[in-house]
Every structure is written in structure tokens, then in C-alpha cells.
Give the backbone structure.
Amino acid sequence: MNRLDILESRSIYILREAYACARPLAMLWSIGKDSNVVLWLARKAFFGKVPFPVVQLDTGMELDEVYAFRDQYAAEWGLNLIVINCPPENEMDPSLPPMTRSAARKSAGLANLLRDGTYKGILVGIRRDEEATRAKERVFSPRATDGAWKFRDQPAEFWDQFTTDTPENAHLRVHPLLHWTEIDVWRYTQRENIPVNQLYFSQGGKRYRSLGEKNITAPIESNAGTIDEIIKELEITTTPERAGRLMDNESEDSFERLRTSGYM
Amino acid sequence: MANTPNVQPITETASPAQLVPGPQMRVVIVGHVDHGKSTLVGRLFHDTGQLPDGKLEAIEEMCRQRGMPFEWAFLMDSLKAERDQGITIDTSQIWFRHGQREYVLIDAPGHREFIRNMVTGASNADAALLMIDADQGIRRQSRHHMYLLQLLGVREVAVAVNKMDLVKYDEGRFRAIEAEYRLYLEGIGITPRQVIPISAREGDNVATPSERMCWFNGPSFLETLPQFAPPESTAERPLRLPLQDVYKFDERRILAGRIESGTLRVGDDLVFSPSNRTARIETIETWNTDGPVSTASAGMSVGITLNEQIFVERGEIVSHEIDAPIESDVFHARLFWLADKPLEIGAACELKIGPNKVKAVVEHIERIINIDSLSDHKATCVSRDEIADVIVRTSQLVAFDAHETLSRTGRVVFVDQHLTLGGGVLSLGDYPDQRQLITVRGTNLTEVDHRVDPVRRIARNRHKPGVLWFTGLSGAGKSTLAMGLEQRLFDKGYQVYVLDGDNVRTGLNANLGFSPEDRAENIRRVGEVAALLADAGLIVITAFISPYRADRERAREAAGEAFHEVFIDADVATCESRDPKGLYKRARSGEIKEFTGVSAPYEEPSTPDFSVDTSGRPVDECLDDLVTYVTDNFITARERQ
């Protein structure tokens, strides 16, 4: 088995554990490169079928290409798509810095989805290498009803034995891509020929390295127009992946505050 | 004002784009709190030029705000609470490139409070670096972490004696710690790749050899990394495929799981344990591959279909008929306990062995292991952070492997609803593998019915049939009471017969020895014969120590409602003072090994149908009790009149 085979096999194992132990299960689809890989892995794990609903937390602020991609592949792959409209920004915690407040709308949308206890498991395509607090995540992360992440008191997780039971009304965040890196995602996308949103490729010397809402995400300087070129670029870059995600670095702990209160 | 780092980074030229790089090597960094684990990672990233842009400045700013000197640990300690308290709370991971390999460096917390986070980080590691503060020397977590790593299965180890700057780079100090720690590692069966003197803060022997420690000829930490060997492939070992699920999304019925060891081929005959069902593999199912797949091996997540639709479910282990896993409802576990609430003898708990979840009871705590001295002592409970050897009994038969033989299917995790309480590695010890006892080898069997109704047998014999299963220690009085009871009942007109241990072993069971499997088979055959004789209308009295509950339960299953478990109760001291066959004496001298009550366990009946305490009571009195029991239970109401 090569490196991608190893990563893929473990992710499939995690997806199948989630489907066996954390039902009703749903998946968050941001329509970016990572959650597209999770969708693809789900189709591998379940032999062509995605046996759970796929949820988009919509702020209405995504780029047009994102919506177009969503509609095309939701139809083509026969997905059970649920779109949740996130609450407006003026309902968010006013003590958060402005960009962070805007990002918090997604946590609020997710909390609304989970409020009535419909779902026990939520699949999220975050990775340890993209951000330092995500590096401390568990594969199965138990959350209270409000989604809060108790990072001081995470359960033990070893030998691929995950926390699969939760108290009443709590849910599990399941992270099948936690052990992948950004380059792994691109290599796998290339090998499997997974459709890619054109926003990731350079247009006029700029491309999106990480897709977020248009008001809080900036493209980077890049001439990479193919996956090969993206991989070459990533092999030498020392710029962090989420440098274009403006809410991450507004203050020392702005992203940590987002995550502890339920952000993905 | 923050001090700026005093070493310029070495620029490592990035390798050209390869198709797909090799597998990662995951290295966990462990050791006592404040011995410099996070600092080492920060330093290594800086010295090899792999710090992300802006990170150095961000750390400087964080340190300036806190009015403290430059702190390398802030690279890994990403939570504000960690930086404010200067302590790593939870494990973190960071990717690192060096030479041909990519490494995942796993920074584990060293504080006693966060052992479970250390275990979480270490459990996926291929190798470990253990850090010891040169000034403080070996501390509790220096040993505790390494002991846990060994249980978790990490065998590739290097040791860094850190903060050599604090001891003025003194070779004597380093050699003393090295000698003491090598001795400890030897005690737990680990040989380190290297023991390196370093200063993470100053950069000595981290990425470059230290000029201040010319007396050390070994490699730096960076040069040690390539010495770690990757995990060995288990594709050639016996096949183990624990089932995660059975899917029926379309016309196919697909069994899904990950192959933990061995290789699977289309057309193979498979056994499912513990259901013991068999079937042949028809296809290996895939999605988005070029053409059909005919073989799959260790590490792969697969789906298979079978040639017939047998009922199997999540938790069963798929194997070949040869080299199938152990089946037992009792086993030994060496466990590490992580929960605040101690584990007590008799505690009911839930276990996970792979995807299989089963209810269990901790029957016995054999010993608690002192992690520092490696000596052991007795206890009635296992407290948090302790290592213990326990005996566990499950509510039903489970399939597993001895950890020594196949590690991935030889592990257990204790859970309590939504919490993971601890983990352990499994062995069977002296208990028998019960697979042989429940396997029906014959095929095409059709049972035929007798024409003599059991009721007519009762009418002729004027009593009900049954099995009086005497169990108890050697010397408790089983044979004496069995023969006495047989005589009394016969004289009263009963159809009665005794099956006695030594008598049966000279005939029916002459081909059996005293291995755990043979002992279990001995009892199985006696149980079956007793059931046949009871079916023929007799009252059968058996006189066997039959120390294992599982064996007696199987005898009960054979005879059904006619089975009466009779506990012939006398303590070891009483039995030993009687010692009619001189066996205790030979067991005490070591001549007889594994002697029940002395060097092998006796599992008392928890709810016997009848008990006779023979300590200090005359035989006749005991026989009176037994005759009363038989009269009460074997004479039908009509006969009584």
C-alpha cells in the first residue's frame, strides 16, 4: 500500500465506524476540496452510495462558483442535500472581532441544525495540519448540544477505538480526514480524478488556496493552473494554508474562541 | 523583550515533486512535564527552516505580551490556556520533512493530569523519543510513559537527555542518566536506537552536532530519525478481518471491515468467529477501481460477498479455518487504567475488542505492577494510572488473539457508556481455547427421535432423571460423597450411576492429557455422557473438580433442565489437611504444576443448585442432606403419594 492507500483505508474505516455507531449521521459539505474528498471516500466506503444527508451551512456569502458546483454535483451524485440558512451577523457575540463574528454564523447555523437532536453524528472534513487547534482534535469528538468543544477534557482515543456513545442530546463530530495533509488532499484528488472547483486554479495570477465566504477570504498570489502545479507550489511554500482566511489571525485566540464555541 | 534565537536555520532544499511520497513515520515525543518536549519541536522546525512564514514573529509577539523570554514551545502549544500556564494540555501533531521521509511529530503532554492525552497521541506512533531533563534526572513520567508506550505497541525508541546547558554540558551527568535509564528499558524489553545529550533551547545535537559536547560521537536527533524502522507488514500472518458492518444498499449483501493482518483471496473458505459459521468468499467489492480485485491484504478496508447468505454481524472476526483466532469467555489482560473511578473486583463493565462490544466482569486482580521498580503487589482495585494484570470473564464467547501473536486483534478497551476507561493487551494463559469444544465437525447430520417417551421412563423408574454435577476442590469430598450417595440411592430403588474423574480418564478419556484444552475436553465429554445417561432415565452423579465456570455451563447446556450443580464446599486448608491422594504435598513441592487451589484458579459456583459444606461434618450427615435434596427434586408428586 502506498501512502494514499494507507490514508484512504483509515478514513474509510472511520466513516464505517461513524455509520455503524453514530446514527442518525449527516455530513457537512462546504463544497471545498476537503469535504469533496470526504464525499468521495464515503462513496468508496459505501460502494457508490452516500447513505446519509449532506448539509451545507449557507451564509449566502459563498462565491457564485461554489453554488454552481454544489448544484451540479448534488444532482450528479444523487446526494440528499440539506441547505441550512445561517442566522445573520448581528445575532453573533459582539465581543468577537469583526471577521470572526462573521465566521461564527456557521457555528450558529450548525447549532440550529442540531438543536432538536436529530443527528447523533456529524462528519466534518477538517485536518490537523491546517490549523494548530485542529491539530489537537480527536477523530470522534463528543460535543454538548450547543456544540462547545471542551478541549481541556477530551476523551482518550487509541487503537482506533473511538468514543461512540454520547449522553442524551449531545452529538459526535467525526473527522475522517484529520490525519491528511493539504498535499495529500491534492494528490488524492488527482489520483481519483475528483471534480475540483475552478476557483482553486490561478486566474490572472491569483487563486484560492482555501475556500471561504467572499467577505472574509482572500485569494493568494499564484500561477498554479493545474493540480500538478498546485502540488509543486505546496512543496516549497512556507505560507500557511489558511493565510487567506481572515478570521484566523484577527487576535491571538480568535480562531480558538470560534472553535471552542462550536466552529468546525 | 524576547530573546531572538541564536542559530540560523539550515536551508533544506525541497525535493522535486514526486508522484506520491512514501508512508509517514509518526514519532511521538514523551517524558516528564517540563523536560522540554514542545521546546524540542519548536527548535527543530526553526533549525531546519520549516517554520511557517510569520510564525517566529507571532511567537515573539506572544512572548513580548507575556513579558517572558522567547519560548519555542509556543509553536506546538496552540491553546491560549497552554501558553498562559506554560504547559501542554493535549497532544498535538505537526508535519515535518527530512530526507526521503515525511514525519509526523506528535507532541504529548507530560503532566500526570493528562496521561490519557499522552496515550491518545502515542497510540498511533511508529516510534518514540523520550526526553529526560539532565538537571532533574529520571522522574515518574519518564518511566510511566515508556511503560505505556511498550503496552501500546511502540518498539522503536530513542532517548534525549535534554537541558545539557543547565549541567554545563557535563559528560559524567549524561552517562549516569544514560546508564540508569538503559537499565530500566532493559527491564521492560526495549533497546533504544540512541541515547543523545541535547539542549533543545540552545540547539545542541538537535539538528546539528554540538560543538560544546565534543565528547559525544553519536548522531544528533535529526540524524537519528532515519534510523527508526517502519512497521513490519503483517500481510503474511494469519488472516484477521473484524467485521464493522453488513450493507444491503442494493442487491449485493456486502460485509465490510479492515483487514488487520493476513491476506484474503476470492474463493477462500472463511470462518466467522465466534459464531463459527463458514462460507466461501465470492467477490471483493470495490468502487472506482479499474477492473475486479481478487486479493486484499493487511491494512486495507474492504467489502466482500459470500457464496451463501449466512447470518453474521458486526464484531465477528473473519479468518481462514487454519490459524483461526482464540475463542473464550475468560482471559488475562494487562491493562492500563485511565479513569478516575477505580476498577474493582467483580465490577461489571463493557469491553471492545475491535468492533466487537461485549459485557464482562473483572473476576480477579492478579497483581498491580509498580512502574518504577517493576515489582508487583496484590490489590482489590486498580486505581487511575496504575498497570494491572486482571482476569476478565465475558458474558458470551469472544474471538481474539494473544497479543504476543497478533497484536492488533489482541487488544481490549474498557468503556463505560460514553467514556473510555482503560486499555489492555490480551493473553489466554492457562485457560483453554474453547473453539474445539463448540465446533461440530460432522456435516449432513439429521437427528432422529426415540419412540420411548421420557414420561414412560419416569413412570417405570419411579423418579425423574438428572445430572448431579459435583464440583469442588480436590479433597473436598466429591468422590466419597458421590459413591456414598450412589449406594444409598441404589438401596432405595433408584437407577443411579457415578462418573468419577480418575475412572473416566482410564477409559473414555484415556487419550487426554492435562493441558488446558485437554482438561476442557475431558469435562465436555463427561458432560455429554452424563446427559446421555440422564436421557436414558438415570440419575447421574459426576465427581470432577471442574474448576472453570465455562466448562460447567457447557455441561448444563448438554443436560438442560435435568442439570443440578452441587457445590461440595471445603476451603483449601481443610482439603490440604485431608489430602487423600497426597496431591497437595506434590503440588506444594512443585512436582505437580497448575494444581487447582494451589497454583491454578478454582472458580466457585456463583448460584449452585445445592451446596454441601463438608468442613468438620461427618460424611453421613452430608449424605443425609443430599438424599433429602434428591427426594425433594427427583420424586414426582404422583410417586410421592
Summary: The two ends of chain B are 104 Å apart (CA to CA).
